[in-house]
Please model this.
Amino acid sequence: MAALYRAVITRADKLVPTKLRPLWDDPRGPKTVMFWAPMMKWCLVAAGLSDMARPAEKLSLNQSTALAATGIIWSRYSTVISPPNWNLFSVNLFVGITGLTQLWRIYNYRKSLPKIEEPASK
Model:
């Protein structure tokens, strides 16, 4: 698989215009996982945004917590690695915000439910 990847990149290297060469050769550019991993992670943001149309009672507390936590943790990580990956930072920031928004919706929904009073013990 690595040989196939190298062959494709070698061919693509010849097709990249001079103006795009700095982006292409950047350590966070399209030739690396540091570019493609954040690009694929935008699907998590899209999924979280599509959940905005779902009723709050159908949202998963565990999933929303995991999205918020990973978004916040990896946002920090993307700024301390060398070189800083701002594409990774932005996608993780949006993942965290999406998770926090869903958590807020779950909280508001649960807060709006009528309180069930427990029978008094005798």
